[in-house]
Amino acid sequence: MKKVLVVKANDRPAPLAVSTTMFETFMEEARQKEEWDVTVYDVFERDIPYFGQTYFDALERLENKEPLNEKEQSLIDHVNEALDLFLGADLIVFAFPMWNLTVPAPLHAFMDYIYQAGKTFKYTEQGPVGLVTEPTVVLLNARGGVYSIPETEHMDMGINFIRLSMQFFGVTDIREVIIEGHNAMSDRRDEIIATGLDEVRELARKL
Ligand SMILES: Cc1cc2nc3c(=O)[nH]c(=O)nc-3n(C[C@H](O)[C@H](O)[C@H](O)COP(=O)(O)O)c2cc1C
Q1: What is the structure's pLDDT at 8?
Q2: Which of 2, 25, 79, 177 is the most exposed place for a label (fewest CB within 10 A)?
């Protein structure tokens, strides 16, 4: 069985939300794959807690064999679950929109969970080295404006953040479908979206 982790990062419904439609299109194909064991990790539905000092306090308490409070335990459980899923997957899919030039906050929290020295990367004298070299990663991203041209490329902190993070973790096999410009060029909205969804289907079938 191929272990597949699909990280869904939009709580807006399809077909209104384009990235949710990309997620659903991918899932339609995924359901056809008998050899896939798929886990959907919905960062909104899980209401995942922010990463911060609570986590470091919890680690210190665990080190000292002291009991954790509810908040600390919840964060530790969320981090461990996300890490186990991420490290155990052969194929990892992220479906997410651009919001305010970046990713929705709960997806950022998920990324904070999986940045773990010793697990997803390690420090060496030559600098950090990624430890997650095996999985294929698929990025499904929608953004209303156009960020694939030299004038605006640098403004995108969404897919660039996720792609760079995956590369930082050592992932080399990264596939992408980006649907963009459907708000900026609203007269071509339907065509842009339909073409992108075809690309999602085609990519999913080839995996
Ligand atoms: C809160 C919010 C912030 C957004 N910020 C941007 C943005 O910074 N740049 C952009 O091109 N589109 C922006 N959009 C439009 C979305 O990128 C666009 O709707 C795209 O399809 C992805 O969102 P969706 O999957 O919910 O449709 C924003 C939309 C919302 C709801």
Answers
A1: 98
A2: 2
Total of domains in the chain? 1
Q: What tens digit of pLDDT does each residue of 17-60 get?
A: 999 999 999 999 999 999 999 999 999 999 999 999 999 999 99
Instruction: Give the closest residue (by CA) to ligand 1 atom 7.
Output: 100
Cα separation, 119 vs 131, whole angstroms = 7
Ligand 1 in reach of 100 Cβ (< 6 A) = yes
Contacts of 196 (CB under 8 A, 6+ apart): 18, 22, 142, 177, 178, 179
User: Cα–Cα distance between 186 and 152 in angstroms, integer?
Assistant: 19
- Cβ–ligand 1 contact at 12 (below 6 Å): yes
Residues 107 and 89: their CA atoms lie apart, in Å, by 18
Q: Which amino acid is at 79?
A: V
159-168 helix and 105-114 helix, angle to the nearest 10 degrees: 10
Residues in the chain with pLDDT values less than 70: none
Count of Cβ atoms closer than 10 Å to residue 176 Cβ: 15
Per residue in 74-101, is it b (16+ CB within 10 Å) or e — as a string? bbbebbeebbebbbebebbbbbbbbbee
Q: 74 is in which domain, residue-wise?
A: 2-206
Query: Given this model, what pLDDT does residue 114 score?
Result: 98
CATH value at residue 42: 3.40.50.360
